Amino acid sequence: MTLPMNWSEWADHDACALAERVRRGELTPAELAQQAAAGAALVNPALDAVVEIFEDLVDDPLIDGLDPNGPFAGVPFLMKDLGPTLAGRLQEMGSRFMQGRRPETDAFLTRQMRSAGLNLLGRTTTPEFGVCSSAENPDVYVTRNPWNTDYTTCGSSAGSAATVAAGVVPMAHSTDGGGSIRIPAGFSGNIGLKASRGVFSIAPDLSDLTGLVSTQGCQSRTVRDTAQFVDACRGGAPGEFMPYWTTDEPYRQQIERDPPRLRIALSHEWGDYRATPAIVAELERAGRFLEGLGHEVDYALPDTDLRAAFAAQTTCYISNFAQVIRGMLEAHGLDRPPAELIEPINIRIWEAGKNLSYTERFRMQSVFNQTARAFGEFFGQWDIMLTPITALPTPLVGTREYLTISDNPDVYDWFENLWRFFAYTPLTNLCGIPAISLPMGRQDNGLPFGIHAQARQANDGLLLQLAAQIERALDGRWNDGRRPGIHVAAHDKA
Questions:
Q1: What are the beta bridge partners of residue 141?
Q2: Strand pairing partners for 451?
Q3: 3-class DSSP state for residue 42?
Q4: Does the pLDDT at position 493 exceed 90?
Q5: Pick the catalytic residue: 95, 133, 134, 156?
Q6: Choice among 134, 180, 319, 406 that is catalytic
Q7: 80 given a catalytic annotation
Q8: What letter does residue 151 receive in the DSSP assignment?
Q9: Catalytic residue among 80, 201, 220, 319
Q10: pLDDT class for 243, splitting at 50, 70, 90?
């Protein structure tokens, strides 16, 4: 098969650029799909990031309802195997227990993506039910980081992060319930926006008070791709209870201007959690860079009980995931999780949360409210809060203490391990505020490291404006212009 581009040319195009070439008649959606499928075949043996390519959508991108006149004009887009459903397509959630599951209907967001012109071409890896830090169960798959395959991408949007970083597709779907867009983006050299609550639909299954910590989004390599994705896919389904707000100006236009001079707060000491000295140095380097762009930068942190906030977050995760697992068991006519098919920590989460009382949930929500109000007060004084993406470096593949295949008998201790590592991302989910990971840092092992910016609720546009300003200042050269060792461009013939 003759492809329309060599791999370096393909990787130099973001989604907006590919769409523009389709609109000019230089490429077709089918040619884009063929190139993306070929790219997946090249890198997946090393990365184990793609679960499935939908070959019928390679042959005919329009058969599932893609609108070729949408802003993305047929750009190939891989779906994390969790979240919005695709009617008749497998969605197995990284779990042996869910193998063979085929949802009967499209989610509302699925239809939004297709209306935007995205070709939902296949599935990417995720840990079981999206619970743990990386997609690493040897009985299912082990997803590796394209910068160094000894390391994980983290998760839970593991496969999406790897495929975007490796140049397979310019964008891929991700979900974020505590950092699952931003952390893999940060460790893979991508851009990862967790949008504010009230941007993307969570219908039909999560349209209630328990599902509000999780949001949808994408991994990308350019700010304009992320901005265009939000513009094109935002909005709620009929009957969703949340007010789905809009903006006076599309983000795609807003990012063409620099933001005003911003007050930016640096922070890396969050209650009981601290970043390593090397990571603090990367944060401070980013702060100096932003000062060079004319912004005011200093150290500050919201005045709130962080220990109580993380405890409430743990209660939220345990209670939410326990009910998700309960629903799966009921659908299979079971009264407890089968140990041979569901991973140990997920069974312990179910055990800890299945009988959680309304009183405990009410106390949790009270802490959520207090924390959100404190963050809201903070963002009345500061425009942006800048933290590292994590407190610790990228783990090696097989670091079991963060995985749901862990043998840790204490699920609360297991969550404490997560928060010690992922200290800076989950509270944005609790508060419903936007945050973005930008590939501005570098680890001692050469892997990328994300710098994490947060803003007040509904100020997503300001984050994207700042990101675009940084991108222009870097001349578009995120990651110092480097590409990972596992990359489609490595397959160009000399």
A1: 137
A2: 388, 438
A3: helix
A4: no
A5: 156
A6: 180
A7: yes
A8: B
A9: 80
A10: confident
* Residue 25: Cβ within 10 Å count: 7
Mean pLDDT of the chain: 96
Q: Is the pLDDT at 1 greater than 80, yes or no?
A: no
Q: Is 194 a catalytic residue?
A: no
pLDDT band at residue 260 under the 50/70/90 scheme: very high
Q: Does the annotation mark 180 as catalytic? A: yes
Token look-up 């891929």 returns 172
SS3 percent helix, strand, coil of the chain, rounded to 5, is: 40, 15, 45
What is the structure's pLDDT at 74? Answer: 98
Domains belonging to the chain, first-starting first, are 7-239+252-491 (3.90.1300.10)
As a whole number of angstroms, the distance between CA 157 and CA 122 comes to 14
3-state secondary structure 440-482: EEECCCCCEEEEEEECCCCCHHHHHHHHHHHHHHCCCCHHHHC
pLDDT of 228: 98
The two tokens of residue 264 are 């930016």
- Answer whether residue 212 shows pLDDT above 80: no
The span from the CA of 302 to the CA of 298, in Å, is 13
Which pTM does this prediction carry? 0.97
Q: Residue 171's closest CA among 118, 135, 129, 126?
A: 118
Contact 451, 279 (CB under 8 A): no
Which residue, among 51, 450, 40, has the nearest Cα to 283 in the 3D structure? 450
Percent of the chain with pLDDT over 70: 99
| Residue whose pair of structure tokens reads 């989604």 in the numeric block | 15
